[in-house]
UniProtKB/TrEMBL annotation:
This is Cyclic peptide export ABC transporter. It comes from Luteibacter flocculans. It is found in: Cell membrane. It comes from the Bacteria. Residues 1-258 form the ABC transmembrane type-1 domain. Residues 296-524 form the ABC transporter domain.
């Protein structure tokens, strides 16, 4: 089309000659057809790439160690929203960039056929633009990273708004503090950085189009004044150079998506979600089974959370042996390390020093099979609506209904194809639903982090006197964190923590006795 327009412009058109019109129309149809086809292919490719990116990212979130984000829940929230949203355009723009680079190559080869000396002048101008753009990109890179971090802070404060809604509704002074002292400055910082980077990029775009017009101006001038080229050559070249400005402008403007997207890629790398890494090894182990065991032991284990001051440990050093089938209570004051101990036992945290042994064999690096031995309810548990068995299959509706009834939830929650109808219950009722999930999973070790704290007296009693002994009777190992001292006597063993150390480890001499006296009423037997 370009060459046809050039031929018409340089040779002229005779009055009444419709042939060039038809030829032009033919070329335009070809441009439309190939343009539409390429856009369709690009859209499909872009859609596939974005979908693949989302699948990859969510898989990596699943694979990511709990420990990595233990202190930074807002990071995961922000990454899922911000990073996916900004990497997607980067992925989408990649094929378009390739397409425009190809156009540039085609136009340049056409221009080379028109006039190599004029192309050399144009290349000089474009070279300056490319070098200036690259320098700007390097300069803005740190700003883009700072912008990503500033947005992270904004997300953290947004979380205050959703999770602290009730507190904020009650306390106008706090609501004002969050809005004026936290959110507004954080948004202000993000806005400043956004203005800086987009001003820089906008300046670069304006500069690039000026350079292209300047190059056309200089080409016309030098073409006539110094190189004494024929008018037709200069005109053909100028039209070609103006065609070239479109793809060049696109490539320069893509720097926005590239800048934001690569900042998000670097952010993912920082939080351990590197898209280049290979998560397949851990994924392959997910299906692994725990295997038979008799004793889990911690030897000289210490743990310190990231960001804690040097030398301060949350737990340890600790030595602890747990026998299969034991009903163990972990007790102690707030912050004494009970939850941390539980996370270490389940190898959700990795000891800083010491090791976890299964039947005297160190656990090693592949912790997945060991984790499959555990099911339980964390202090800050999350409730999934789908009830699955140990191998991930939906539990039968009939079985779920039986469990719901035994947990006093039969009339509150319906079930259809393994999915619970609602999770919006009271805190105590939600904990019972969480317990239902544990029964569905039916693993070797059941753990409970202050499960009974939100239960009414009846259910609390039922938990300690019926549920826990039932689990033990089924051969399960039970580790329960508790403050309910009136039930301590029901455990086989009570381990007490203080300031991260075990200060007492008491075993009952006759583990059978207390259970014989326990409440075994049929209407509350689970399963
Ligand atoms: N995610 C975390 N990041 C940093 N420090 C933590 C984190 N979780 C716990 N800690 C610290 O580790 C220590 C032990 O905490 P842990 O939650 O294990 O105590 P706990 O005995 O379960 O307390 P509680 O009875 O209040 O639940 C505390 O000093 C606490 O400040």
């Amino acid at each position: 089309l370009l060459s046809h327009i050039n031929a018409m412009a340089t040779h002229g058109v005779h009055a009444g000659d419709t042939a060039p019109l038809w030829e032009g129309a033919g070329w335009l149809v070809a441009v439309l057809a190939t343009g539409a086809a390429s856009q369709f292919i690009l859209a499909r490719l872009g859609g596939d790439l974005v979908a693949q990116l989302r699948i990859d990212l969510s898989r990596r979130f699943v694979d990511l160690e709990y420990e990595t984000l233990a202190n930074e829940k807002h990071t995961i929230f922000g990454s899922l929203i911000e990073d996916v949203a900004s990497i997607a355009p980067l992925v989408l723009v990649a094929p378009l960039l390739a397409y425009n680079v190809l156009l540039v190559v085609l136009y340049v080869s056409y221009l080379a056929s028109v006039s190599p000396p004029l192309l050399a002048i144009l290349a000089g101008f474009l070279g300056v633009t490319v070098v200036a753009s690259m320098a700007l990109e390097r300069f803005l890179r740190r700003r883009f990273d700072a912008l990503r971090d500033a947005n992270e802070k904004v997300f953290e404060y947004f979380r205050y708004l959703s999770e602290g809604k009730k507190e904020l509704a009650l306390n106008a002074a706090r609501a004002k503090h969050v809005a004026d002292e936290l959110i507004r400055p954080a948004i202000g910082r993000s806005r400043r950085l956004m203005v800086q980077v987009h001003t820089g990029l906008g300046f670069n775009e304006a500069w690039t189009s000026t350079v292209i017009y300047a190059s056309v101006f200089v080409i016309v001038y030098i073409g006539y004044a110094s190189l004494a080229l024929p008018q037709t050559t200069i005109m053909r070249f100028v039209i070609g150079a103006l065609f070239l400005s479109g793809p060049v402008a696109f490539i320069v403007s893509a720097a926005r998506q590239v800048g934001v997207g690569t900042a998000s890629l670097r952010h993912l790398q920082r939080v351990g979600l590197d898209l280049d890494g290979d998560g397949s090894s851990r994924r392959s182990a997910v299906q692994g089974k725990g295997g038979a065991w008799q004793r889990i032991a911690l030897r000289g284990v210490t743990y310190a959370y990231a960001g804690e001051e040097e030398g301060r440990v949350a737990l340890g050093p600790i030595d602890l042996d747990i026998q299969r089938g034991e009903l163990l209570f972990i007790v102690g004051g707030n912050g004494s390390g009970k939850s941390t101990l539980l996370l270490l036992l389940a190898s959700l945290l990795t000891p800083r020093t010491g090791e976890l042994l299964i039947d005297d064999v160190p656990l090693g690096r592949d912790t997945q099979p060991h984790r499959q031995r555990f099911t339980g309810v964390f202090g800050d548990f999350f409730l999934f609506p789908h009830v699955l068995d140990a191998s991930g299959r939906p539990l039968s509706d009939e079985r779920i209904r039986t469990l719901l009834t035994s947990l006093g939830l039969g009339s509150l929650v319906q079930v259809e194809q393994g999915e619970l109808s609602k999770l919006t219950l009271s805190t105590g009722q939600r904990k019972r639903l969480a317990l239902l999930q544990c029964y569905a999973e039916d693993r070797d070790i059941f753990f409970f982090d202050e499960w009974a704290a939100d239960q009414d007296t009846h259910f609390r009693d039922y938990f300690y006197r019926t549920l826990l002994p039932d689990l033990k009777a089924q051969g399960k190992t039970v580790v329960a964190i508790t403050h309910d001292d009136r039930y301590f006597a029901l455990a086989d063993r009570v381990v007490k923590l203080e300031s991260g150390r075990i200060v007492s480890d008491t075993r009952r001499r006759d583990p059978g006795v207390a259970y014989a006296a326990g409440d075994q009423s049929a209407d509350h037997r689970v399963g």
